[in-house]
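Contributing new complexes? Match this layout with 5,6-dihydroxy-NADP.
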Amino acid sequence: MQGNFKYSNPTKLYFGKDSLSFLKEELKNYGPKVMLSYGGGSIKRNGIYDAVVNILKQEGKTVIDDGGVMSNPTVEKLYEGAAKAKENAVDLILAVGGGSTIDYAKGVAASAYCETDPWQTYYIEQKDPVCKIIPVGSILTMVGTGSEMNGGSVISNHTAKFKGGKVFGENNMPKFSILNPEFTFTVPTYQMVAGFFDIMSHIMEQYFSSDGDNTTDYLAEGLMRSLIHSSLIAVKDPKDYEARSNIMWTATWALNTLLKKGKKGDWMVHMIGHAISAHTNATHGMTLASVSIPYYKYVLDGGISQFKKFAINVWGVNPEGKDDRQIASEGIDCLEKWMKEIGVVMHSSELGVKEDNIEAIADSTVIYHTDFYPLERKDIIEILQRSM
Ligand code: NZQ
Ligand code: ZN
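Output block (do not edit by hand):
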């Protein structure tokens, strides 16, 4: 059932091999000072940096260089970027990279003129910005998070051992995003498949809640089938444009608020994954992969009808002669088999989780009231133990 909602998404997308050519037009909408935010250097090695800087120069922009955004961007980097953006009175933050760089850019955009501590205000107290927000544009180079078309911004505070997510409103979402699948060809395999699983997880987090007949579930099933199909091609041939472009498009729709319509959402795989990352700094998609199978097996009995639908409609499980639980559980087996085929991390111990930090990870896990199982700290500990 679809409830009451407003649907709109302010991010303009440019997609395809020629999409960078639209940057020129977009830049005309903003003032002269552009802060160019990027990661640890991949864009310098693959030529994207030079291509972007050339366009900025042609358009007469002053470039404020802001490299070094790390994966799982830190609160220290957020403060540094906010100070730089304010000091230079930048007119646009152009984020060139994956989810980390784009999330960071959104955080900086809302923090530069924030009169209180942005970490406390946005990521802990979950307040909305009341200050000026700097416009953000993005050029996506790594697929997975959906950050290119959503308000999400995830920042890590390693001192507090907490990875905090804030979903900002429409005025802090990228004004435009440029999506060229070829820009993702140089992503290392480990990161590529982590991104693939992140996409799957975003869809599952929204799908595994609020059962009943819902158009959103049909959209989610289609996106999952496309992802499964294309991911198996891309792991064999990462330069397969058809597969990579389908995956890029799927990733954007997996987390741009569309699949949330009519759905409550679960998000506990992400909450446990974020806590693992806060303690180990592991790659986001791999943290999700390491706990998904134990998590879904743990909550299965609370959501049999939805897991059964997943098994039949996504994986093509034949229901004949089986009871509902058997069918539902076969769907999870198919998910596990696919995960092994694409090569994601299946055990949290491979990411640095140890018996003696499980309790601390459980303490860093935000626990939501989900539809399928009333989770408590002891359940998180049990799931983490089973994920080892
Ligand atoms: O830093 P560089 O040198 O650019 O290298 C990056 C990084 O090492 C590399 N990379 C990216 N594009 C490349 C490339 N290497 C070669 N060629 C390219 N074209 O890939 C590595 C990973 O990049 P990163 O941006 O960290 O990955 P991802 O896109 O997975 O982002 C992860 C962050 O996003 C957050 C995560 O928690 C994590 O902090 N998330 C954001 C969400 C959102 N905005 O809604 C939702 C997600 O669930 C997630 O929580
Ligand atoms: Zn994610």
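Reviewers usually confirm one structural detail per submission. For this one: Residues 145, 198, 201-202, 270, 284 surround zinc ion (ligand 2) (CB under 6 Å).
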